[in-house]
Design a protein that fits this description.
Elements: E1 16-18, E2 21-22, H1 23-37, E3 107-109, E4 127-129, E5 147-149, E6 167-169, E7 187-189, E8 207-209, H2 286-291
Parallel strand pairs: 3-4, 4-5, 5-6, 6-7, 7-8
Antiparallel strand pairs: 1-2
């Protein structure tokens, strides 16, 4: 239970937190909730539905499995808070500080976390449905096996975030920062990732279908054994990326920077390399290039201009 260090003791019983609720009442709610979690007599699950806790000092508060529907935590300080398994339907945590908070298994439906600080937070196996996280900072956050649907992560910071086996459907990550993020074996479908910064990110064995990466910076990212079918990387920076054993069938790579990329054993049927820069790209065979789409604006692995012609030897990488 937090000790509310920012509030003078004489205000504890009178400070308004929400409709007909003061800090002293909140203390009793938390005590009963702790007893409920431990299955002690007198225990009762915390229900703070609709309660206003904006700007409150709630660091390390324990609201595990609590009912927090429509609660207002705007600008609240909740670092190290335990919200594991909590119900946060329609809750507003905009601008809240949730550094290293535990939101594992939490239910976030129609919730708001715009510009929230979630660095190092544990969101593993949490459910995000129609949640807004615009500009939120999730640096080093853990979203292992998290489920995200119709969520807005536009301009969110996800540096080195862990999204292993996470699932994202119809989500907006436009201009988000995903440098060195780990998306191993994740599933992304119909997501917008235009303009993301994701250099060094790991998408190994991921299923990324019908997603948009227009003008994304994915320098040195790894897509080995991933399924990228029907996704668009139009004018994306994919230099030094690894696409070994990757399915790029029907992928739009028009105008992309693919210098130094590796394509060993990749499936390239109907992949568009029109206008792409493939200089020094490795592992592309005549068959792979013949199955893909190239044009006179394509720069082939040997540095010559396309379209690729069988027997030309243009698949052999030059040095740059």
């Amino acid at each position: 239970m937090p000790d509310f260090p920012s509030m003078p003791e004489e205000l504890l019983a009178t400070q308004p937190i929400g409709p007909r609720l003061g800090i002293a009442v909140l203390r009793r709610v938390l005590e009963a909730h702790g007893a409920w979690l431990e299955r002690r007599p007198g225990g009762r699950r915390a229900s703070l539905s609709g309660v206003v806790l904006a700007e409150a000092a709630l660091d390390k508060i324990n609201l595990e499995r609590a009912d927090l529907k429509a609660a207002n935590f705007i600008d609240a300080s909740m670092s190290g808070a335990n919200l594991s398994g909590a119900s946060l339907h329609f809750a507003d945590l905009s601008n809240a500080t949730l550094i290293e908070a535990d939101l594992s298994h939490a239910e976030l439906v129609d919730a708001k976390l715009d510009y929230a600080l979630l660095g190092g937070a544990n969101c593993s196996e949490a459910r995000f449905l129609r949640v807004s996280l615009r500009g939120a900072n999730l640096r080093d956050a853990h979203l292992l096996e998290a489920s995200m649907e119709n969520c807005d992560f536009a301009r969110a910071v996800l540096h080195q975030a862990q999204l292993l086996q996470a699932k994202a459907f119809d989500c907006n990550f436009a201009e988000a920062e995903l440098e060195e993020a780990n998306l191993y074996h994740s599933v992304f479908r119909h997501c917008k990732l235009s303009g993301i910064s994701a250099a060094g990110s790991n998408w190994v064995t991921a299923m990324v279908q019908n997603c948009e990466f227009r003008r994304a910076d994915l320098n040195s990212a790894r897509f080995d054994r991933a399924d990228l079918r029907q996704s668009s990387f139009w004018k994306a920076d994919l230099s030094n990326c690894s696409f070994q054993n990757t399915r790029v069938n029907g992928v739009d790579l028009e105008g992309a920077n693919l210098t130094g990329a590796r394509f060993h054993e990749a499936a390239t049927m109907s992949a568009s390399f029109r206008g792409a820069d493939l200089r020094a790209a490795q592992g592309l065979t005549p068959t792979q290039l013949g199955q893909a789409l190239t044009d006179r604006d394509t720069i082939l692995p040997d540095g010559s201009h396309g379209p690729f012609l069988r027997g030309s030897g243009a698949n052999r990488p030059c040095r740059i």
